[in-house]
Amino acid sequence: MVNGDNLILESQEISEQGAQESSQENVSGKKTSGKEEDLGFKELYEKSLQNVQLGEIVTGKVVQINNDVIMVDVGWKTEGYIPARELKDDKGDIIVNVGDDIEVLVDKRDSDGNLVLSRDKAAKIKVWDDVKNAYEQNIPIKGMVLQRVKGGLSVDIGVMAFLPGSQIDIRPIRDLDKYVGQSMMFHVLKYDRKRSNVVLSRKTILEKERESVRKKTLEDMEEGNVVEGIIKNITDYGLFIDLGGIDGLLHVTDISWGRITRPSESFSKGDKIQVKVLSFDREKERVSLGIKQLTENPWEKISEKYPVGSITEGKVVNLTDYGVFVELEPGVEGLVHVSEMFWTREIKHPSKVMSVGETINVMVLDVNPETKRISLGFKQTTTNPWETLKQKYPEGTVVKGVIRNITNFGFFVGVEDGIDGLVHISDISWKHTIKHPSELYKKGQEIEAMVLNVDVENEKFSLGIKQVEKNPWDELSSKYIPGSIIKGKVTNVTDFGIFVEIEEGIEGLVHISELSQKRVKSCSELYAVGDIVSAVVKSIDVKTKKIRLSIKDYESANDGYSVNQYINNKENVGSNLGKVMADVKIMDSES
What we know:
By secondary structure, the chain is α+β, with helices and mostly antiparallel strands. The protein has six domains: 4-23 and 44-122, CATH 2.40.50.140; 138-206, CATH 2.40.50.140; 221-294, CATH 2.40.50.140; 298-381, CATH 2.40.50.140; 385-468, CATH 2.40.50.140; 475-590, CATH 2.40.50.140. 20% of the residues lie in helices and 36% in strands. The strands form six sheets. A five-stranded antiparallel beta sheet has the order 3-2-1-4-5. A five-stranded antiparallel beta sheet has the order 8-7-6-9-10. The longest helix has 25 residues, at 4-28. The radius of gyration is 57 Å and the shape is rod-shaped. The termini are far apart.
């Protein structure tokens, strides 16, 4: 690179040398008294020529092109010449034609007195003049980015200049390589001609342009306008949009009529988007924007479009442990709760059976426009196996199955694939009181049970084991009529009375008031578990499975009390007098 200051000093020396030579030529002629007298043709010709000074930049015309030199007429008595290398491109081709006007520096005279011209030196001197003018007048100068260098970019503005990374753009730039090869306008921040040092800024150009655009944007900004912007920043609560010198906020709730959890999943920095101005504070320069407002609110007529019970197609957009979110249309999502996915199949997580992006059919179960919630069902689009079960196993059907699970309230029996029936602890035996089903049954055991009920709505299948056999209580009401005398073993002694086993699994209660004709303070005073007692049946309730007994009445009859009178005082005992008397005689003989 040629140093501009050295070039100027050299040009000044050449100019002084040319002036001295010109004065010597004038001295060699005749002295005049201020009047031109008897001038020869040669003197008149030379006087008519342009007074060319060495070191001066002049405009000349290309008159001849040779391999080594380019001849240029600068208005002097002979043409000057430029070395051809100064006017060749990268391929080695001459870049000027005969007749072209070019600016050149009158550099020097060769040994033959011919003018040596320079296009390069003229250009460099002019560039520094342009740099100085651009700096002093604060006007832009054009340049091309050549390469990335440490801390910024190298720019060709006629001389090499430096563009710091902080002065490339208004925003921080990570990828500087994308600017290489681009022509741009720059401001000159500072320059040093002696050191050939120039520092540029593109940021100031952009800031000035931004301010101009900003004023125009503010003038045109109105609520309700639809404008185009560029996404400047993305946060969890929304997007900041550059509208042209002023930023607006697009809140996450105004992006879509549906639910947006992470704006970064749908948008990227630098994207161009159209938005609607929702509100504008001119004084504070605050702008609220919306995208969903550009379209009709789908929730206004949602109940009409998706009536309850209708089946529609949707796309799976999210999977959670409690269900699947399905997009019915842009901005409208519904939830298929995990309980509404399958009739009988149990799943650990919806992701095991479905995937995001999958298209499925769903039934609309409920629509709430106010809360913007739609409940959907997936299993409802398939045949309900509980309906089939009800038809296949009507009440009273005896089925076989394997015990799959035992609990304290009963056990579950596998009858159909995915459907278990429950045998409640109260439906295991007619006679026995069972504390825990495991006393009689174990997991994996095959049993027979009767279908008691199939509740399709609540998806419950009730079974019973005792119902397979005839209910013994149906016979007890005729077998043990009031007034009958029984003999049994005491199975339990309580504060309020004693329990007597009439037959296997059938017990009756002798209340403390029915133990004796005498006053009894404690049942244990008279009886203990295992004692054999006789008693009269006072009443029997088949529904509640309760039998009331009386030892006191039996003793009265045994003490000579008129049994006939005793029986006649009871209801519905007329024909049983003979049976009672016979039982009394038998009891007496046994005792």
